[in-house]
Design goal:
By secondary structure, this protein is of the alpha/beta class. Helix content is 25%, strand content 28%. It is elongated, with a radius of gyration of 21 Å. It binds flavin-adenine dinucleotide.
Length: 301
C-alpha cells in the first residue's frame, strides 16, 4: 500500500549537520520534515559547554553555545520547518521511498541521516542513578563528589568543568598517564579540588537499594581505593549512531556511515552528514556537510 504522505526530504537529527542542511534548503516547507529525539542542538550545546570553561574558545567563530542554539532556533522558525520529536529506530528502503520507523511511521523520497555520536557506557553502569555522560548538562553540584571516568581530552575537560561547580572531583584513567593534551593537563593541575588516578584496572560501584550510588571502589594492579561519590560521568569514547541504517547501507569497520563527496551513502537516495560519517568532529565541518547533502538532493529532485 502506498503511504498517503511521502515527504520529499526527511532529516534525522537536530545538531549542526541537520542545521547546515536546513540552512541550504530552498523548497516548500511542506516537503521537508526534521526528526530529532532531543532538543535542537542538545548534544553540541552540552559538549561545547565543558570545553568553553577550559578553552574559552569553542568553535570556529568563537561564539558561545547559547548563541549557537539561538541561531538554530531562529533558522527553524524563519523557515517554518516542521519538526517531529521522536526517536527513529530503523529505516527501511521500499521501492521509491523510505519507511522511517519511530513511535510513528514517516515516509520520504530522500533521507539525510545526521544522528551524530553517543558516548559509550561502561559495563552495566547505566542501571545506576546519577551516572551520566554530559557534564555540561549540570550547572551546580555544590557539596557533591563527582567521578569522571576517562582522562582523554573530553574527560579531562569535564573534570575541569566539574571542579568549578562541585565539591570534589576524582578523575580515573586506565592508562598509566592521562592521555589528554598538555593544555588540559596543565589546567587540571590548577584545580585544587581534583585528584586524578592513572592505571585504574577495574571499577566497582556500591549503591543503595534504590540504585542511588554511594561509594566507588577502584583497583590498581596491586592495591585499591574506596571513595564516596554522588555523581559519575563517563568519558570513554564515542560511537556513531548508525544502527538505524546498518541494514540498508555500508558502514566502515568502526560503524561510521560510508559516504562519497556528495554525502551519498551506498543506498540510493539515502544521504548522511556529520559525526555519524566520522570526519573531523567540529561544528564548522558539519554545517558544510549538511549543506552539501541537501545541495545534491535538490539537484536530483
Ligand atoms: C566533549 C565534546 C566537546 C566538543 N567541543 C567542540 C568544540 O569546542 N568545537 C566544535 O566545533 N566541536 C566540538 N565538539 C564536536 C561537536 O559537538 C560535534 O562535531 C557536532 O555536535 C556533530 O554534529 P552532528 O550534527 O553530526 O551531530 P549531533 O550534534 O550529535 O546531533 C545529532 C542529533 O541527532 C539526534 N539523534 C540521534 N539519533 C537519533 C535517532 N535515532 N532518532 C532521532 N534523533 C536522533 C541526537 O539526539 C542529536 O540531537 C565536541 C564534542 C564533544 C563530544
Amino acid at each position: 500500500m502506498i503511504p498517503s504522505k511521502i515527504y520529499k526530504i526527511v532529516i534525522i537529527g537536530g545538531g549542526p549537520a541537520a542545521m547546515g542542511a536546513i540552512k541550504y534548503y530552498d523548497g516548500s516547507k511542506d516537503d521537508l520534515l526534521l526528526i530529532s529525539n532531543d532538543e535542537i542542538g542538545f548534544f553540541v550545546y552540552n559538549s561545547i559547554k565543558t570545553h568553553k570553561t577550559t578553552d574559552g574558545l569553542f568553535f570556529a567563530d568563537n561564539k558561545s553555545p547559547d548563541y549557537l542554539i539561538k541561531e538554530y532556533k531562529k533558522l527553524l522558525f524563519e523557515k517554518k520547518i516542521n519538526i517531529l520529536k521522536d526517536f527513529v529506530k530503523k529505516i527501511n528502503k521500499c521501492d521509491n521511498y523510505f519507511e522511517i520507523i519511530g513511535s510513528k511511521k514517516v515516509y520520504a523520497e530522500f533521507v539525510i541521516v545526521c544522528t551524530g555520536m553517543n558516548y559509550k557506557m561502561l559495563n552495566d553502569f547505566n542501571k545506576f542513578k546519577n551516572v551520566y555522560n554530559l557534564a555540561g548538562t549540570f550547572n551546580n553540584l555544590k557539596n557533591k563528589n563527582c567521578v569522571v571516568i576517562g582522562g582523554r581530552n573530553s574527560g579531562t575537560s569535564a573534570a575541569i568543568y566539574l571542579a568549578k561547580i562541585s565539591k570534589k572531583v576524582y578523575l580515573l584513567e586506565k592508562n598509566n598517564k592521562l592521555p589528554c593534551k598538555k593544555k588540559y593537563f596543565d589546567r587540571l593541575l590548577n584545580c585544587k579540588n581534583v585528584d586524578f588516578f592513572c592505571g585504574v584496572k577495574n571499577i566497582k560501584i556500591f549503591s543503595h537499594k534504590n540504585l542511588n550510588i554511594s561509594k566507588l571502589k577502584f583497583f590498581f594492579d596491586k592495591d585499591s581505593k574506596e571513595i564516596n561519590v554522588d555523581f559519575i560521568f563517563i568519558y570513554i569514547g564515542l560511537i556513531p549512531n548508525s544502527n538505524i541504517v546498518k541494514s540498508i547501507c555500508k558502514l566502515d569497520v568502526n560503524d561510521y556511515i560510508l559516504i562519497n563527496s556528495k554525502n551519498e551513502t551506498s543506498c540510493k537516495n539515502l544521504f548522511a552528514a556529520g559525526d555519524v560519517t566520522g570526519k573531523l568532529s567540529q561544528i564548522i565541518t558539519y554545517h558544510g556537510d549538511g549543506a552539501n547533502a541537501i545541495y545534491w538532493i535538490q539537484k536530483r529532485m
